Amino acid sequence: MQFKNFDVDHFLREHWQKQPLLIRNPWVEWTNPLEPDELAGLACEDGVEARMVKLDRARWKLEDGPFPEEKFAKLGAKRWTLLVQAVDQLVPQVAALIEPFRFVPNWRIDDVMVSYATDGGGVGPHFDQYDVFLVQGLGRRRWQVGPLCDAQTELLPHDDLRLLANFQPTAEWVLEPGDILYVPPRFAHDGVALGDDCMTYSIGFRAPSRSELVSNWCDHVLAELDDDDRYADPDLARQANPGEIAPAALDQLHAMVSEALLDRAGFARWFGQYTSTPKYPDAIGEPDEPLTADQFRTRLAAGEPLHRNPASRFAFIRNAASLTLFVDGENLDCTPDTTPFAETLCGNDQVTFNPAEPVNAATIALIAALYDMGSVGFESED
Ligand code: SIN
Ligand code: CO
Question: What pLDDT, on a 0 to 100 scale, did the predictor assign at position 285?
């Protein structure tokens, strides 16, 4: 699915990570993919990450889900917002909202959060560390956008919410169903529902912080190191002052650290696994029964599409031999036989084989491995 009248190259050049942009309904035909009561139903389920933000007598309050069903009946006319995380993993029609944004690589995509607000509801002025496309689903919302913030920006004292103490909007728009507001990282923003039944779909991205990368990469490097791998000086030369740490010793010590940390191939392999680790691993269950190679062959030859588990993460990195496929924190080395399938799987949420072309044995084995992990499946079992 692509947007009408939306120039991706222009957007990437002028707006992505640079400037907010209001995109007036670019969908071929906008239909709100989820009803408010369906969202409320999800917020009552165990294992679903849901929050509620209320503005009660000028005080912001946050409550974590899951919520009892009766809660929604008791809320009355107060200003409140319900937020549910990763709805794309639960509702295929919500996952479909990501498709027009696939010009951003998969590994940068986080999830789709869905909010529902009553008149005047919102989460308050704040900034996020990530890019977001705010798709207005139902009802109307007034969005105000302000300047770039940073770690020094003053926040209101609050235990759970990071709200701006002084929000000075510089632009303002009213969004109608189908309209989209793009907000780059750290731009202040505040959305207030105009009327009840205001639903917003936040297509959120992720970007690792340097500290997160260094810390996790170092943990990985450390786990691989051997205690026998140690400083050695079999060619020790006498030095004038025994108190000096000689430059040659320092060079060797420094090389021990930098060689371990600068291993590019090792880093690529680690990062693929790290970034494909699922956010909600409990949503990826192993199948009740494995299928035989013949069963896979028959079903694929019948044109049955193989679906990616919406909670699974897929990526690949090219290497000298072919490529390494990363799925849900595992790495699977591909050969030229399995590479076409791996590439198709990473670029599409489902794969259908041409019944006229038999699937090679290595690809069947790869599909079986992914099936056993719970990362792919056939629709009839979902
Ligand atoms: C909302 O949907 O109300 C909040 C989304 C955001 O500001 O990031
Ligand atoms: Co935000």
Answer: 86
